Amino acid sequence: xxxxxxxxxxxxxxxxxxxxxxxxxxxxxxxxxxxxxxxxxxxxxxxxxxxxxxxxxxxxxxxxxxxxxxxxxxxxxxxxxxxxxxxxxxxxxxxxxxxxxxxxxxxxxxxxxxxxxxxxxxxxxxxxxxxxxxxxxxxxxxxxxxxxxxxxxxxxxxxxxxxxxxxxxxxxxxxxxxxxxxxxxxxxxxxxxxxxxxxxxxxxxxxxxxxxxxxxxxxxxxxxxxxxxxxxxxxxxxxxxxxxxxxxxxxxxxxxxxxxxxxxxxxxxxxxxxxxxxxxx
Length: 281
What we know:
It is a single chain. This protein is of the alpha/beta class. Helix content is 42%, strand content 14%. The longest helix has 17 residues, at 219-235.
């Protein structure tokens, strides 16, 4: 049986799933297929590399630095989050906390990274083989927040956050052969996305990237529909949804060390549900 895991990301709320992965490390839990969006893809890269605790370090220290994200960055080059700093200077082989590229590539699990093509508004699915040593371009592309960042270039195309076009990519996971899937959310399970903020971001990018703007404007509908589908699969025993019961008011880019740490511990605790789900395979 092929078991998959999906991490939908969520900026600094990703500290919740960082806790899940550390629990998986501590309990020798492995997946056959891993799919990540935005911060979720970065979390999965550390998990696949076997680097327990690396994600937590980024959330509690590196991502809180002004170099990582802030208004100064946006004024300088129109990128609120400095993807080159987070996934380059810090993560490259010469960085402060390098990703163990060799270990990640040696891991037999499949790794899919979801991004949104800025020109077409359609999802693009990168694989582990698209990541090069000291060049995490697919993860940068997947983490590119519309309006807060300029779309990230990869092989002649520009990409935004994968959550715009396929926020909960369960159907892709099943198409790729998974029989059961652990779905990691960074908002409560009963959360329904409102289109209000998405419309604002959509308006800011519509002039240059109309197709991406259209995808952005429909993200709430897509998210809510895919979450409903996930709950139907959960009733059938094909999906396990792990989500925080409360996020303490955290938004995608909220720098709140106490809440970040609290979400990490929630994730570690909630991950215990994976044991029974995996044993039932």
